[in-house]
């Protein structure tokens, strides 16, 4: 049987070789990892801040029919560009055409009624913006007779008075005086009759004028009905309200559409808007007219330049963010509504920014974070950082470093927090 002391001899020899140090202390005595270093430098850059948001169309319209009807054609497809006034959907026009034909027939009848009523009183009586019964031929004749009778009555009265004077002096007989008085009475009776005829003719003319007025009102009403029928017929062709692109067309020929149904969606994207949710402390720095540079995933090597057009006056109580709205020219239609963008709002003046070389930043996919190892006292210290932008040689750090730190620029995948390092290299900062 083997002695237990013999089995313990190798372990005792190992502990003696290690100087009887604890096991944990033995582990930390691993060889340092060699790294090159760089300095996180501070530079003055244009003042700006970065936000994300989505592009919106300058104008978007959900097109619905003005009147219900059955679709007979849809001459445009999704993605098509249309000009203002182009037909994008056509409804069955037969009912509208029948109503228009009926209204036009009624208008012809009403117009004939106006002509007939006017012919009774003469055109001259209705000219000048009003009605003058004395310009009606029958009334004018009756008035002339009335005025003539008045003149005859005045002459008869004068003759009768002369005969009265002559009878006093005995120059005329009583019978002659009586004849003069009879002629005066007859003339006065003729005046009364002529006046009655004149007034009757004038009243009849006024009644005829009322008929004309009623006929003209009816004519105007029928004209309005014709105009409405013409509009209803025109509304069977649904047209684009402005130049733009069709993004939806949910109807097809044969379907019946009601007033609430959507015929198509059209968007104007010659200019697009970008809505950025901005924290209130940043929103207060932005002003209308500030330059905005945006990037989208569809064009990774292209920058789109716009400007701030509005800062919403109210803040979202949940996110404590303002909506910052920027406008971008989009003549080539590269930017589409709904595209997600990262944008830099450029402010007046400059600001301090920290930069490190690209190779000093490690992207940890497990934690979805960017990491930097700061070297101090011969050890690597892990720092989680936020990056704002990336140049050809360096990366701008928006948080996590204050500048002046020495960072590892190689072998980052071998480093761990608190691990020993052996720094080498020129220790140059980011360019």
What do these coordinates show?
The protein has six helices and 19 strands. It has 431 residues and is α+β, with helices and mostly antiparallel strands. The protein has a six-stranded antiparallel β-barrel. The longest helix is centred in the middle third of the chain and has 61 residues. The protein is elongated.
Briefly summarize what is shown.
The chain has 6 helices and 19 strands. With 431 residues, it is of the alpha+beta class.
Low-confidence segments? 1-28
**Principal-axes shape call:** elongated
Tell me roughly what share of residues is in helical segments: 25-40%
| Count of structural domains | 3
Rounded Rg: 51 Å
Q: How many helices in DSSP terms?
A: 6
Here the CATH topology of the largest domain equals Elongation Factor Tu (Ef-tu), domain 3
Distance between the termini: 72 Å
**CATH homology superfamily name of the largest domain:** Efflux pump adaptor protein, beta barrel domain
CATH class of the largest domain: Mainly Beta
Q: Give the DSSP E fraction (strand runs of 2 or more residues).
A: 35-45%
* Second CATH tier, the architecture of the largest domain: Beta Barrel
**How do the helices and strands follow one another from N- to C-terminus?**
HHEEEEEHHHEEEEHEEEEEEEEEE
Mean of residue pLDDT values: 83
Q: Which oligomerization state do the chains in this entry correspond to? A: single chain
Specify the structural class: alpha+beta
């Amino acid at each position: 049987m083997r002695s237990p002391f013999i089995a313990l001899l190798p372990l005792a020899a190992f502990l003696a070789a290690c100087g009887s140090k604890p096991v944990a202390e033995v582990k930390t005595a691993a060889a340092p990892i060699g790294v090159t270093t760089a300095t996180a430098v501070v530079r003055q850059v244009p003042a700006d801040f970065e936000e994300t948001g989505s592009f919106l169309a300058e104008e978007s319209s959900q097109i619905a029919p003005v009147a219900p009807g059955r679709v007979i054609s849809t001459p445009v497809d999704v993605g098509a560009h249309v000009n203002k006034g182009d037909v994008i959907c056509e409804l069955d026009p037969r009912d509208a055409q029948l109503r228009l034909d009926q209204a036009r027939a009624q208008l012809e009848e009403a117009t004939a009624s106006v002509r007939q009523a006017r012919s009774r009183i003469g055109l001259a009586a209705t000219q000048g913006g009003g009605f003058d019964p004395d310009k009606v031929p029958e009334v004018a004749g009756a008035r002339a007779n009335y005025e003539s009778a008045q003149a005859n009555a005045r002459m008869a009265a004068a003759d009768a008075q002369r005969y009265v004077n002559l009878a006093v002096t005995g120059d005329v007989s009583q019978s002659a005086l009586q004849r003069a008085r009879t002629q005066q009475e007859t003339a006065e009776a003729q005046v009364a009759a002529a006046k009655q005829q004149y007034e009757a003719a004038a009243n009849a003319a006024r009644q005829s004028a009322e008929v004309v007025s009623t006929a003209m009102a009816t004519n105007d009403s029928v004209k309005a009905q014709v105009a409405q029928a013409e509009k209803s017929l025109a509304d069977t062709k649904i047209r684009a309200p402005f130049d733009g692109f069709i993004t939806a067309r949910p109807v097809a020929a044969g379907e019946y559409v009601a007033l609430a149904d959507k015929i198509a969606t059209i968007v104007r994207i010659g200019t697009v808007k970008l809505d950025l949710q901005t924290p209130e402390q940043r929103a207060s720095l932005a002003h209308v007219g500030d330059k905005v540079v945006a990037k989208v995933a569809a064009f990774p090597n292209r920058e789109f330049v716009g400007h701030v057009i509005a800062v919403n006056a109210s803040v979202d109580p949940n996110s404590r963010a303002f909506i910052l709205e920027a406008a971008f020219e989009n003549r080539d239609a590269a930017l589409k509504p709904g595209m997600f963008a990262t944008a830099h709002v450029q402010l007046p003046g400059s600001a301090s920014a920290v930069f490190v070389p690209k190779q000093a930043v490690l992207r940890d996919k497990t934690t979805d974070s960017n990491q930097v190892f700061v070297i101090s006292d011969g050890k690597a210290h892990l720092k989680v950082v936020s990056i704002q932008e990336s140049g050809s040689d360096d990366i701008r750090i928006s948080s996590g470093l204050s500048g002046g730190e020495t960072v590892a620029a190689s072998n980052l995948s071998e480093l761990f927090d608190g691990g020993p390092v052996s720094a080498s290299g020129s220790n140059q900062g980011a360019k």
